[in-house]
Amino acid sequence: MSHSDAKNIMVYVETVSDTPLNGGLEILTKAHKLAAARGEEVIAVLIGSNLEHAANTAIMAGADKVILVTKDNYEMEVYEAILTRLAEKYKPSLILSAGTLVGKDILPLVAGNLTTGCAVDVMEITDKDGNFVFTCPVYGGTVLNDLVIKGTPAVAAVRSGAFEKELVVERTGEIIKEQVGVENTVRAKIVEVVNEMAETVNLEEAQVIVSGGRGMGNKENFRLVEELALACHGVVGATRPAIEAEWVPRSHQVGQSGKIVAPKLYIACGISGATQHVSGMIGSGYIVAVNKDEDAPIFDIADVGIVGDVVKVVPLLIEEIKKIQSL
After folding, report:
1. Is 276 among the annotated ligand-binding positions?
2. What is the pTM for the complete model shown?
3. Is Flavoprotein a UniProt keyword of this protein (predicted)?
4. pLDDT (tens digit, 9 = 90+) per residue, 232-255?
5. Torsion of CA 85, 87, 89, 92, to 10 degrees
């Protein structure tokens, strides 16, 4: 795609149960500010069914136009083909999506189709001399690297929680229904869907996450993490050692090989602070850590650190929280 022809920012907004995920809405708010400074528009893309309400929410978050494409079920190759066709038609200078599993599935494929580059786990986007600069963590999050994609459009998957969502009720926009032909694009065939018999968890959308690590000791003690999460009206997270010990299902894993999260409150119980885990939750608004090792790396990033036996401290936290809630 010619650089001179490219204009506007396209954002794929993922939906679950006909509702847009916060990650996509956060990106729309950021995209609106970037596009306004360039005198351009934001084009949101929603794929699914019965998404008219979601389209209006996307407009409130910053979209000038919303493209609706009807598709009953998620198929990676179909979605990436749809986004590719829309990019070829509307010629955006930038394509964004939340860095969810779906976003990380389809965006690199879209970038490959358009012969351009794709940045992942983006934490900031700036406009410098007409080029988009993407700030991404490298070396396990210990270094922040600025990246410029020379190809057009630039494609990037953004870390959830990187930007603040702003919904403006008075904002208006245009809703466009598109029919995109993507025949003969599916190379994989779904032969069976197996539902995991476990609590459904959406870590990326959670405002409060209570995570447990190896320091919890055993599965019975890990139940304290679940009780604290319940008391805080939050969800349960875990480190890889806790997952591998089968104390909690893999869907709860936070870290480089799990979910990248940015809740308002993150409580780390018995977590030492290994880089693999910290890089997945460093964007949290407020971090509380409980660990018996006063030299644990987790205390270097915690807003509040409690040095003590997690099995003794957590029950006290639960008790105090319940007292406050009963007032």
Report:
1. yes
2. 0.81
3. yes
4. 999 999 999 999 999 999 989 998
5. 180
CATH 3.40.50.1220 positions along the chain are: 203-326
Asked whether residue 291 is marked as a ligand-binding residue, the answer is yes
Is 277 labeled as ligand-binding? Answer: yes
For residue 211, how many other CB atoms are within 10 A of its CB? Answer: 30
- CATH 3.40.50.620 boundaries in the chain: 9-177
Burial class (CB in 10 A: 0-12, 13-18, 19+), 108: middle
Enumerate residues 6+ apart whose C-beta is below 8 A from 44: 10, 11, 12, 13, 24, 28, 55, 58, 59, 63, 65, 66, 67
Tell me whether residue 272 is annotated as binding.
yes
Tokens found for residue 4: 């001179």
Distance CA 96, CA 101 (A): 14
326 annotated as belonging to a binding site for a ligand: no
| List of the chain residues with pLDDT < 50 | 197-199
Q: Does residue 239 have a known ligand-binding role?
A: yes
Is 255 annotated as belonging to a binding site? Answer: yes
Establish whether 93 is an annotated binding residue.
no
Tell me if 240 is assigned to a ligand binding site: yes
Correct CATH for 9-177 of 1.10.3720.10, 3.40.50.620, 3.40.630.30, 3.40.1000.10 = 3.40.50.620
Q: pLDDT per residue over 56-82, tens digit each?
A: 999 999 999 999 999 988 889 999 999
214 is in an annotated binding site: yes
Paired residues of 325 in beta bridges: none
User: How many CA atoms lie within 13 Å of 161's alpha carbon, on the beta-carbon side?
Assistant: 21
Q: Are 14 and 104 in contact (CB under 8 A)?
A: no
> Is 176 labeled as ligand-binding?
no
pLDDT of amino acid 143: 83
Residue 99 contacts residue 262 (beta carbons within 8 Å):
no
